[in-house]
Design brief:
127 residues; mainly alpha; 5 helices; Alkyl hydroperoxide reductase AhpD; AhpD_core; 2 domains; CMD-like; 66% helix
């Protein structure tokens, strides 16, 4: 492998689909429905949403594909960057909001320090 994210890797998707054809076809039908079965949200806006989500998930393939589709639908660099900034702000806000869990967890155990955990025990969290 010469380059970790190489656009030509996408040419291998049919190979993946052969490994689980029913699931792959279900996914493709779902994607088709989401992007094409309804015009409640215009196609360009759907692509702007996809660009924003692609940045949150960190998928360079999706960024590339959805930016190009958005541009083909008349999307501008300014619109694309605004969508990315909205995703950035939303992600940061979610992280900040989740920090309340850290405060609560800390306060709940204020009087009881965490006991020493034996090295061979199962972890409470797998992240």
């Amino acid at each position: 492998m010469t380059h970790y994210y190489d656009r030509t890797n996408l040419q291998r998707i049919p190979d993946l689909m052969k490994l689980a054809p029913q699931a792959a076809n279900s996914f493709l039908a779902f994607e088709q429905d989401v992007f094409h079965a309804s015009d409640i949200i215009a196609a360009k806006e759907k692509e702007l949403i996809a660009v924003a989500v692609a940045h949150v998930t960190g998928c360079p393939y999706c960024i590339d594909v959805h930016v190009k589709k958005c541009k083909a639908l008349g999307g501008t660099q300014e619109e694309i960057f605004q969508a990315v900034l909205i995703a950035t702000s939303t992600q940061a806000g979610a992280l900040l909001s989740h920090a309340t869990h850290a405060l609560i967890a800390f306060e709940e155990n204020a009087d009881n320090p965490t006991p020493k955990i034996p090295p061979d025990s199962t972890p409470d969290c797998f992240c």
